[in-house]
Amino acid sequence: MDELRIVIADDHPVVREGMKAFLDGRDGVRVVGEASDGEAAVRQTQALQPDVLVLDLLMPRLNGLETIQRVHSACPAVKLLVLSAHEDPGYVEQLLNLGATGFVRKHSGPDELLTAIRVVAAGGTYLDPLVAGRMVTSLLGNSGRRKRGRRFRRGDRVVEGA
């Protein structure tokens, strides 16, 4: 894969600088732009056409949801990776429905961020493992599958499912 071009959008300078310091130049990744608010993120993405926009959701001038919608509409080839402390499965589902292609918690390590960038840049969808687990649990709970008492084979014995 060629060099991955990244734009970072976060309203906290120390977060942007930290991500840039970790990502820029690491194994074919180059940070080509930064933005401190949603409007600047849209402008930077339109002007630079990066492979991935890594963005926070709580930014001034244009929130993350509106930023995702605008970027997805104006630059459909750009992959949108959300980096946030909000972990609610319903919220993450909404982000994906608006055009985000990945979600990483701000509590994650930098290597996980790099993995997520590579996955979404390659055309995949990346979900933080903790959030993905919560989404599956929520989905199974809402579908009623957990309440049907399914039977599973574990080794040489059959176990009743909850």
Overview of this protein structure:
This protein has 162 residues and is an alpha/beta fold. It has six helices and eight strands. The strands form two sheets. It has a six-stranded parallel β-sheet, sandwiched between helices. It has a two-stranded antiparallel ribbon with strand order 7-8. Helix 2 packs parallel to helix 3 (64-74) and helix 4 (89-98) crosses helix 6. The model is unreliable at 146-162 (pLDDT under 50).
In short:
This protein is α/β, with parallel strands linked by helices and 162 residues long. It has 6 helices and 8 strands, in the order E-H-E-H-E-H-E-H-E-H-E-H-E-E.
Strand order of the largest sheet: 2-1-3-4-5-6
Query: Helical segment tally?
Result: 6
The main pleated sheet reads as: 6 strands, parallel
Helix and strand sequence? EHEHEHEHEHEHEE
- What is the strand content? 15-25%
Alpha carbon gap, first and last residue: 44 Å
- The chain-level mean pLDDT equals 85
Specify the overall morphology: globular
Tally of extended strands? 8
Q: Which consecutive residue ranges, at least 5 long each, have pLDDT under 50?
A: 146-162
- Radius of gyration, Cα only, in angstroms? 18 Å
Q: What is the SS-derived class?
A: alpha/beta
Helical proportion? 40-55%
What would the keywords be for this entry?
alpha/beta; 162 residues; two-stranded antiparallel ribbon; 6 helices; globular
Strand and helix layout:
Elements: E1 4-9, H1 13-23, E2 29-35, H2 38-48, E3 52-55, H3 64-74, E4 79-84, H4 89-98, E5 102-105, H5 110-121, E6 126-127, H6 129-143, E7 151-154, E8 157-160
Parallel strand pairs: 1-2, 1-3, 3-4, 4-5, 5-6
Antiparallel strand pairs: 7-8
Helix pairs in contact: 2-3, 4-6
